[in-house]
Amino acid sequence: MTPAAGSTVDHPFFARVWPIVAAHETEAVRALRRENLAGLSGRVLEIGAGVGTNFANYPRSVSQVVAVEPEPRLAAHARAAAADAPVPVVVKAETAEVFSDGEPFDAAVCSLVLCSVRDAAGVLRRVHSLLKPGGQLRYLEHVASAGARGRLQRLADATLWPRLFGNCHTHRDTERAIADAGFEVHTSRREWTLPAWAPLPVSELALGRATRA
């Protein structure tokens, strides 16, 4: 849920809270992270790396991960996690919007980040431009729910939730934004990380794979 806009972002409260939250993720979320990264190879761009929670799960077929994390305090945590990763990881303390690289990537990974960027469409277009033709986008994202939970999400987004959790907006049609950015979605499913009745607006996640069309 790491935000991105401009060159860096400053979320001191979120930067204190998120390392604790990440260290206590449910096994259901950890399993989805592993599934999201399974089978990747070549050079991978990770958007909004947070504290580097994904790093330990990258398969050894990945030659390099370039991880973009614009919150400086979280980027420091990510660099520490990169030192213990099974594959080479470079952490860039900047946003996706300003990031550039001389070589296109084989794949990109978004994990719990598109809910909190200020311009999800712009970030996705940028990711699209940084991938090779046919390059993969792997995503694990909070998404808008229907019914009563959707109403709860809209209420949360309009009040304190984004201020407390690094600009996280829970009621976003993220998969439509992915398609609108020029990606072709091949597989997608919804998963509940808590019981459906639990009053937490970020319980429903979308796990999917898309390619640069």
Describe what you observe in this structure.
This protein is of the alpha/beta class. Helices cover 32% and strands 26% of the residues. It has helices at 12-23, 27-37, 72-82, 120-130, 147-158, 161-164, 174-180, and strands spanning 42-47, 62-68, 89-92, 105-111, 131-142, 183-192, 204-212. Strands 3-2-1-4-5-7-6 form a seven-stranded mixed beta sheet, with helices on both faces. The longest helix is centred in the N-terminal third of the chain and has 12 residues, at 12-23. The chain is globular, with a radius of gyration of 16 Å. 46% of the residues are buried.
Q: What is the N-to-C order of secondary-structure elements (H for helix, E for strand)?
A: HHEEHEEHEHHHEE
What can be said about the biggest beta sheet? 7 strands, mixed
Task: Tell me the strand order in the biggest sheet.
Answer: 3-2-1-4-5-7-6
Q: What is the alpha-carbon Rg in Å?
A: 16 Å
Shape category:
globular
Number of E strands: 7
Uncertain runs:
1-5
Overall average pLDDT: 93
State the end-to-end distance: 26 Å
* Tally of separate helices: 7
Structural class computed from helices and strand pairing = alpha/beta
- Classify the oligomer: single chain
Provide the β-strand percentage band: 25-35%
The helical percent reads 25-40%
